[in-house]
Write a structure and sequence with these properties.
single chain; about 325 residues; mainly alpha; 3-stranded antiparallel β-sheet; globular
Length: about 325
């Protein structure tokens, strides 16, 4: 049955209805975007993304604040990047920390330099370390439970504007809420920061990192790293590379921290993420080559030492009488 065409009055009513629907839809989408932008659960953000895709297809909006669709078939899988690009070598780390100390000697209140130094001891995300409160530090541990997030003006959905940043009471993922043990060096750095805050009178709520009466802008950490690396002539590696250096140091250390523990320290949900993207060699290429050659050339010596230790250990072993396995009797043909 053919649909009856709309008359002029009906067409005008439909136009007004669509216009009103579009207006309310935009208001609803603005609220959805605000909620999703600060949501802890990835599923909420995914649902919001799908809502925007629907609104885009229905032509309620002409642009989504989320990323555009990507044809996954055209993406070429990339190999794991070289360690030299992803982590600080031992030499680079030593040089950078020395440069930060030099700057602190010139400006004892350089709290951003201390934030970078503490990052090497904690391996947190940049947004997490700047959200640490004094009350989060207790019993030689620090509770990572907050993060800094960007604030946006979404009055125009097609052009969201960054207006500032704030602290929220959750981490990037549910697994990000964690307790990290503090090294002696980490405790020393925290004490220096607290002393600076007392001497300068800096205070904002209970936060550890405060400057000019408010939270430190996260971009200041990268700006300082960029400048410091340039001065000592080493490659610029941002705070996320410090996080990878922390993970790699834990895993490659002689004490052997297992991958599951490294995952927990980083706040990851999956060990595959940790091993695939965060574990690298912190030795330079020359040192790695030397280690490989030492390992290969030292096989005979290692084997002899291993044999000696086993032989000496045999003295303490209680030997029991050997029990031989009974042979299965062959089948006999019985004649009657």
């Amino acid at each position: 049955m053919a649909r009856k065409p709309l008359n002029e009055t009906e067409r005008e009513q439909k136009r007004l209805f669509d216009e009103e629907l579009r207006k309310h839809s935009l208001d609803a989408l603005k609220n959805i975007w605000k909620i999703a932008n600060s949501a802890m659960d990835a599923k909420v953000r995914l649902q919001a993304n799908q809502t925007f895709e629907y609104a885009l297809d229905a032509e309620y909006i002409d642009k989504s604040p989320y990323r555009v669709k990507v044809n996954k078939k055209k993406i070429i899988p990339t190999r794991k990047k070289p360690s030299e690009q992803e982590v600080y070598s031992q030499e680079e780390k030593t040089l950078l920390l020395a440069e930060l100390e030099r700057r602190l000697s010139n400006n004892p209140y350089h709290i951003v330099a201390l934030a970078i130094m503490l990052e090497f001891e904690l391996g947190t995300r940049r947004a997490e370390i700047l959200a640490i409160s004094n009350s989060d530090i207790k019993d030689d541990k620090v509770h990572i439970c907050k993060q800094i997030v960007d604030e946006y003006d979404v009055s125009d959905l097609s052009k969201p504007k960054l207006t500032g940043y704030k602290v929220v009471d959750y981490t990037k993922t549910r697994d990000g809420d964690r307790y990290l043990p503090l090294t002696a060096k980490a405790k020393s750095i925290i004490s220096r920061i607290q002393r600076i805050n007392m001497e300068t009178g800096e205070s904002y709520k209970d936060f550890l990192f405060v400057q000019n009466g408010y939270l430190i802008n996260p971009n200041k950490l990268y700006d300082l790293i960029k400048d410091a690396c340039g001065c000592i002539n080493i490659p610029i590696k941002a705070t996320h590379r410090i996080r990878k250096t922390y993970a790699s140091t834990l895993y490659n250390n002689g004490n052997g921290v297992d991958i599951s523990t490294v995952k927990d320290m980083l706040g990851h949900a999956d060990e595959r993420t940790t091993i695939s993207h965060y574990i690298f060699s912190t030795s330079d290429s020359k040192t790695r080559d030397e280690k490989v050659l030492d390992a290969l050339q030292g096989n005979t010596t290692s084997s002899n030492k291993s044999s000696e230790s086993v032989t000496n250990g045999d003295k303490n072993i209680i030997h029991f009488q050997e029990i031989k396995k009974r042979k299965t009797p062959s089948k006999l043909r019985v004649f009657h």
